[in-house]
Amino acid sequence: MLWSEYSLCQEWSLSKFVPVAGTVPAMLPLRIGSFTPAAPVVLAPMAGVTNAPFRAMCRADAPDLVYVNEMVMATAVVYGNDKTRRMMTFGPDERPRSLQIYGSDPDMLGRAVHRVCDAGLVDHVDLNFGCPAVTRRGGGAAVPAKPRLLRAVVRAAVQAAAPYGVPVTAKFRMGLWDHLRTDVETGLICADEGVAWIALHARTVEQHYSGEARWDAIGELKQAVDGIPVLGNGDIWEASDALEMMRTTGCDGVVVGRGCLGRPWLFADLVQTLTTGVPVTTVPRLGEVLEVMVDHAEALVELHHTDREALRLAPAEHAVHEFRKHTGWYLTGYPVGPEVRRRFAMVERIEDLRSMAGDLDPQMEAVPGAARTKRGHTNGPRPVHLPDRYLETLDDLVAPREELMAVSGG
Ligand SMILES: Cc1cc2nc3c(=O)[nH]c(=O)nc-3n(C[C@H](O)[C@H](O)[C@H](O)COP(=O)(O)O)c2cc1C
């Protein structure tokens, strides 16, 4: 189906994405309570990245989208610590407040969801069933292989959130391997249990981040799951990719991860592109990029200043160290040379970051195709590790022991 076959209107609305003819199921709107995003776009949760300062950069020119906080573990929410509390920080004007919670034990996850809802901390909870790091213990992306356990986990979260009117969504991968696909069954279970939308990272766990995301799986999931929006995720580097993903798969919206690393203005491109149907790619000159970079670093330093635990660890330096990875992403595509990149990647103090930024040529332009340069994780494929005899017990309800899992990412 061609994009021109979709009826476009001035503002994004459901009708805009409804296919005029054809067999693609009708597109469904994304909603969180009374909030309808300006375009069907969600920031993918990224551990160690999508905290409040990063989201503030993304929201600057595209405030009305759904930006999901970095993942927190259910056990850490229930037992509480300073670091987890800092990780659950939202901007004062940030709505909706979307939090991803990771948990594989129904009881623990239910308690965590109850806690954040009851404290009035969130407007939306996203569940992570795509994390490849803890399959060895039966957690994360291993859970969808156990449909009964998955159902119990989802049910616990939805039931805990329901009294507060907080919608629960779920994000997962295609399966463990190609020969153990679980995406459609996971989607059906989530829909059945009252999840508000589902998002598919179109790779298996084995693939990790390698190769291209397999968008055909997103189309298959959309065909299979009725009644709730199906979002596609994987390899949206420019806004035109989002248009293409929606056009080719019929999905109801997109979840965008690595493409916005060092390019938070991607979200403004996405709103413009999806509301007009005309693809735009903003590639600022280096001076503008550096301004955003420094603002971002300063916001991170400020966040750490409010954190009592980090304060004991010299907050400014801690924040600047945490920020180092972002410098490489912001400079991606600008021909500043390896020595400059190396100095940014070793930066110790916010003052040094400012002065190093001041030394660069603000008029410098990015090389052609810079926006598409892959960033963030690209590793894989990787062998999938599971607990002993896991595949022989897929029907049981045994949850992994949460306290054994220190997790980072999906
Ligand atoms: C640094 C990093 C951290 C991530 N952390 C999480 C996470 O905590 N939860 C999650 O569901 N996915 C996580 N992911 C996966 C992304 O949300 C997303 O599914 C994946 O990057 C594919 O989308 P993309 O091609 O747009 O990046 C992470 C990815 C990266 C690169």
Q: What does this entry look like structurally?
A:
The protein is α/β, with parallel strands linked by helices and 410 residues long. It folds into two domains: 36-282, Alpha-Beta Barrel (TIM Barrel), CATH 3.20.20; 286-364, no CATH class. The chain has 15 helices and nine strands. A nine-stranded parallel β-sheet has the order 2-1-9-8-7-6-5-4-3. α9 links the parallel β8 (230-233) and β9 (253-256). α5 runs parallel beside α6 (147-161), α6 (147-161) packs parallel to α7 (183-192) and α7 runs parallel beside α8 (215-224). The protein binds flavin mononucleotide.
CATH superfamily of the largest domain: Aldolase class I
Q: Round the mean pLDDT to the nearest integer and report it.
A: 90
**N-to-C order of helices and strands:** HEHEEHHEHEHEHEHEHEHHHHHH
Q: In terms of structural class, how would the helical and strand content be classed?
A: alpha/beta
Shape: globular
Determine Rg (CA atoms, Å): 21 Å
| Top-tier CATH class of the largest domain | Alpha Beta
Q: CATH topology of the largest domain, which one?
A: TIM Barrel
Distance between the termini: 32 Å
What is the CATH architecture descriptor of the largest domain?
Alpha-Beta Barrel
Number of strands: 9
Number of domains in the coordinates? Answer: 2
Proportion of beta-strand residues: 5-15%
In terms of quaternary structure, the protein is single chain
The low-pLDDT segments are 1-16, 18-22
User: Number of DSSP helices?
Assistant: 15
Portion of residues within helices: 25-40%
